[in-house]
Specification:
alpha+beta, DNA polymerase, domain 1, Cytidine Deaminase, domain 2, 5-stranded mixed sheet, two-stranded antiparallel ribbon, 7 strands, 37% helix, disordered N terminus
């Protein structure tokens, strides 16, 4: 709804696209009503093929953009704004889909139309994605899909505001036995104890290990301390015949693999 402000005798009341009526005896311009865009009209009024749920059924989820996919979880918008328009606002506000998915309840509920219920729906969907990726690692060798470990790690720890250190324990066929968060630290530092990693690997009868941690600062490039830790872990695990296959560093928008970089 437009807000009409005080006007002078020769000023227009509202200027827009569709004229309603004109009184030639008045000095004011035509009073008009703004035309609603499709995104702001109720989704049931859209052409059937453009409605997100119908589009998904007909063409598959890959045919939907981020806002359309998000709108399906939101289900409804707010007065004068469809679920798709609300989703577009959210993506614009947070700058990216990963940043939106990692938003706290307080951050999200500041947005008009967003409450704890919708935040919970988004978080539940995100958690299902992470669990699905982790379960996939348990069924197939990590080498059967080179990007699978990367996708899993980025979804699990890429957007955390503090550092965590993960161990991925693998069986003799390089399938995931368990992913364990072994250490947690501040925004810039995590204390890692190689003896604990060795003990946990033996407890699980692991045949190989991948370790990973995140850099909340944004750059996934390894520090000298990261390189030193990799060398220490490699030597310690060799004593019990458990190879360290990789050390991965994850950030919100980047990924670094010691193995891919030839540093192992």
């Amino acid at each position: 709804m437009d807000v009409i402000l005080p006007i002078g005798q020769s000023q227009p009341i509202v200027e827009g696209e569709i004229g309603i009526r004109q009184n030639n005896k008045l000095s004011h311009k035509v009073i008009v009503s703004r035309q609603l865009t499709k995104e702001h009209s109720p989704i049931p009024d859209w052409p059937r093929e453009d409605q997100p749920r119908e589009k998904l059924r007909a063409q598959g989820a890959q045919s939907l953009n981020d806002a359309e996919l998000l709108a399906i979880f939101l289900r409804v918008g707010v007065k004068g704004k469809s679920a798709v328009a609300l989703a577009q606002d959210l993506l614009h506000q947070f700058g990216s889909l990963p940043r939106l998915l990692s938003a706290s309840p307080d951050e999200l509920t500041r947005i008009h139309g967003m409450g704890l219920s919708k935040w919970s729906q988004i978080q539940a969907a995100y958690e299902l994605v992470k669990r699905s990726l982790e379960e996939g690692l348990a069924y197939d060798s990590i080498f059967s899909s080179p990007t699978h470990v990367r996708e899993f790690l980025q979804a699990k720890i890429g957007k955390l505001p503090h550092e965590v250190f993960l161990c991925l324990y693998l069986d003799s066929r390089y399938r995931l036995i368990e992913c364990q968060e072994l250490f947690r630290g501040s925004i810039t530092h995590t204390a890692v104890y190689p003896r604990e990693i060795l003990k946990e690997a033996l407890t699980r009868n692991a045949s190989a290990i991948i370790v990973a941690h995140n850099h909340p600062s944004g750059s996934p490039l390894p520090s000298q301390a990261d390189q030193d830790l990799t060398n220490i872990l490699t030597k310690a695990l060799q004593l019990v015949d458990i190879p360290l296959l990789d050390h991965c560093i994850v950030s919100g928008s980047g990924f670094f693999s010691f193995s891919d970089s030839g540093l192992m």
